[in-house]
Amino acid sequence: MLRRFLCTCNSGGASTVTVTASAKKKNVVFLGSPQVSASVLDKLILASQASHSIFKLAAVVTQPPSVRDRGRKNLMPSPVAQLALDKGFPQQLIFTPHRAGEENFLSNLKGVNPDLCITAAYGNILPQRFLDIPPCGTVNIHPSLLPLYRGAAPVQRALQDGVTETGVSLAYTIRALDAGPVIAYEKFQVDDSIKAPELLSILFDLGSGLLIRELPFILDGSAKVKALPQDDSKATLAPKLTSEESWLSFDQEAPVLHNKVRAFTGWPGTRAKIQVANSKTNGFDLLDIKVISTRVCHKGIQSRDKNEILFSGDALQIPCAGESWLEVTELQLPGKKVMRARDFWNGLRGQKLKLPSQLEILA
Fold first, then answer.
1. What is the spatial distance between Cα 305 and Cα 320, in angstroms, rounded to a whole number?
2. pTM recorded for the entire structure
């Protein structure tokens, strides 16, 4: 269950993005790359096309085309570029620099005369030469309650920490990492079942709502005066996830592992090593699994073997530290599709499962 709380640093009432017919529309440039950014761009395009809109979309900036699917050799445009093309946006106004400091790109950006730049998961560092171009500044949608979780993976690190409250911030971009004055934010209370991709999508969707509501103040300059500086003493960092972090260690308590599974859903995912009894050798074979969905159990089935993995209801019960159990309801074997834990258990045909020792893992 998600509960919302909205806060704006502007003292004015509700806003509408409107302008008299005689006023000149402001030029807005959007920067973003993944699917969550495309959802923001979609709402921005819709707002720009509304009657009496005070702005127009002058250009879109995104990551260069890349290979996104295994087995494909063709380069594919980013989700943001694809959406812009699908909406009929001029291809010559979709810029795809490898770095935001490239001279040719900065020249093209100046050529569209941007009043404001908006970023949402763009994925490139913006140099000062970029930030100096738009007179109304550059505004970023950041999926955390700044100054908490500054960095590349705010949603993932918040879930990994098991927070019960998170949110989205609309802030000015400065050279320091996610440290600019905050224009508005929205809070959430988050349950313990939501995963990173879902929460990321929700936060960017709500962030786009904040953006549309605050655009009049941003474009007339009043937001810059009323935006609140961040308290750097309360800042925390959200570094990029790495594949090396994806392994689960069952000498930790189950809530810690459950939070990690939720946080790492998508990429890089979470992996674990278990042992499966081999009737031919009377030993155990080591098996790598990808853990997809979990929950926490504090009263698991007791076994004489403290490392035995059992099955109850619809889940594997894996013993963890602190007399807790991680219940795995979905998993994936190497080269296979995601399967229910029940189907995996039935396929074992009575073969015993257990956790390997550290020596068995290294063997």
1. 13
2. 0.91
